[in-house]
Amino acid sequence: MRKINTMRFGEIEVEEEKIVHFKKGIPAFEDEHEFVIIPYDEESPYYFMQSLKSPELAFLITTPFIFFPEYQIEVDDDTMTELDIKNSEDVLLYSIITIPNGSIRYMTANLLAPLVLNTENMQAKQLVMEKTRYTTKHRLFPDKGVE
């Protein structure tokens, strides 16, 4: 177990085998290599990806297929090798969520650059896709009056 300090959750204990490792960090956060994924609550489709290094850094994430059932991604061979992925069953995908001006109604998911996680070794990377129709800002609730 490793104790970490967070702004959102206070001091928490993290099991070593639950630590997600980004070898090269995340674009714009290249110095951040270790995170833990914390459920928002038991019933929620949301999670926090909390940095182990920076207490103030936590990304709100979700499984994109919940909101976008037609979402398709092809993990390239370089990523498969880099993350040592042997079975597609070992892969989890997440999208980083943005909440513009704190308004849930306008929340967006980054489908252009999903987080790819190999659950066998907890290695991960943010995969920026090329030649795709996806963007960094897909509305989660495009027509709903959610507030």
Structure description:
It is a single chain. The chain is mainly beta. The chain is 7% helix and 35% strand. The chain contains 2 helices and 11 strands; from the N terminus they run ββββββααβββββ. It has a 7-stranded mixed β-barrel. A two-stranded antiparallel sheet has the order 1-2. The longest helix has 6 residues, at 77-82. The model has no long low-confidence stretch (mean pLDDT 94).
Which secondary structure elements does this structure contain, and how are they paired or packed?
Blueprint: E1 2-6, E2 10-14, E3 19-22, E4 34-39, E5 46-51, E6 58-62, H1 64-67, H2 77-82, E7 91-98, E8 108-109, E9 115-118, E10 123-126, E11 138-139
Parallel strand pairs: 3-10
Antiparallel strand pairs: 1-2, 3-4, 4-5, 5-6, 6-7, 7-8, 7-9, 8-11, 9-10
Entry summary:
The chain is mainly β and 147 residues long. The protein is 7% helix and 35% strand. A seven-stranded mixed beta barrel has the order 3-4-5-6-7-9-10.
